[in-house]
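re: the backbone from monday

yeah here it is again, tokenized this time
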């Protein structure tokens, strides 16, 4: 089972300092990576209406953290959003590979790279001692891509590889921003959408809903988990968009919680931990 996550762009509400915001997003990126989240959807929260620079802060830093360290300086110039990013520990996801000698690269190895043009030829920087000649269809210089390295007679070339053909356990997340939450919901069948709320029924591992998820045989076995904001729950957010929340499955994953609130980043880690153990064991 694969997981996609939807959170409001008010994620940083009540977090005033940039250093605290940076660490909060780092915690989010770690949770997404630990539980192999494929897509992180950030939807506009009309109950709070955060400013554009706050939304840009979230999106930029999430994308930066998912980028292998050897590419970050090439893709991201110096900017205020990233001024505290250097204080963060590495994500250590499987596509964040170490630099190794060229002779140690195995034939068929997959890496993340960025396209560079030298004269009339395209090369890809995949974090090695030299640029690798690129033989693919993408022509956009500076584009971050996944490539497979082909080794023949001790010469390396890079070719395109589709994400679904990558054999690694996990290959990072993609970040999307939407102005309306219904634009995200309509991409999934209602049986594969999970809303989180402390006011809903307790989540049970032996319910008809979870049985249907576990027995799912669809080719696309992605589940969307939707979280509310640090200030308002999904009831208020759905009401703003005139969406009937009763049409969706909503659960409380923290029964008898010992704190008045569960922070959004804590909720994401906890919910994904429960679902990962249930649906992928």
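seq for it, each position gets an aa:
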């Amino acid at each position: 089972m694969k997981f996609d996550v939807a959170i409001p762009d008010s994620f940083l509400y009540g977090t005033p300092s940039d250093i605290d915001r940076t660490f909060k997003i780092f915690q989010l990126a770690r949770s997404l990576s630990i539980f192999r989240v494929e897509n992180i959807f950030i939807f506009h929260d009309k109950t709070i209406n955060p400013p554009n620079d706050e939304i840009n802060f979230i999106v930029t830093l999430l994308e930066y953290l998912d980028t292998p360290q050897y590419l970050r300086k090439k893709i991201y110039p110096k900017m205020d959003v990233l001024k505290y990013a250097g204080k963060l520990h590495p994500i250590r996801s499987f596509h964040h590979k170490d630099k190794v000698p060229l002779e140690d690269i195995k034939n068929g190895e997959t890496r993340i790279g960025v396209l560079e043009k030298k004269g009339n030829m395209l090369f890809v920087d995949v974090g090695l001692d030299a640029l690798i000649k690129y033989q693919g269809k993408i022509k956009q210089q500076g584009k971050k891509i996944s490539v497979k390295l082909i080794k023949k007679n001790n010469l390396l070339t890079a070719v395109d590889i589709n994400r679904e053909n990558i054999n690694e356990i996990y290959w990072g997340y993609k970040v999307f921003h939407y102005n309306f939450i219904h634009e995200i919901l309509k991409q999934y069948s209602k049986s594969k959408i999970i809303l989180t709320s402390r006011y809903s029924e307790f989540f049970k591992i032996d319910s008809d809903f979870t049985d249907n998820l576990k027995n799912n045989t669809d080719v696309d076995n992605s589940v969307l988990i939707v979280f509310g904001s640090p200030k308002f729950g999904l009831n208020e957010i759905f009401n703003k968009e005139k969406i009937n929340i009763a049409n969706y499955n909503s659960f409380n994953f923290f029964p008898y919680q010992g704190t008045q609130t569960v922070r959004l980043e804590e909720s994401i880690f906890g919910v994904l931990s429960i679902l990962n153990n249930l649906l992928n064991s």
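The CA atoms of residues 8 and 45 lie 5 Å apart. The chain has a mean pLDDT of 92.
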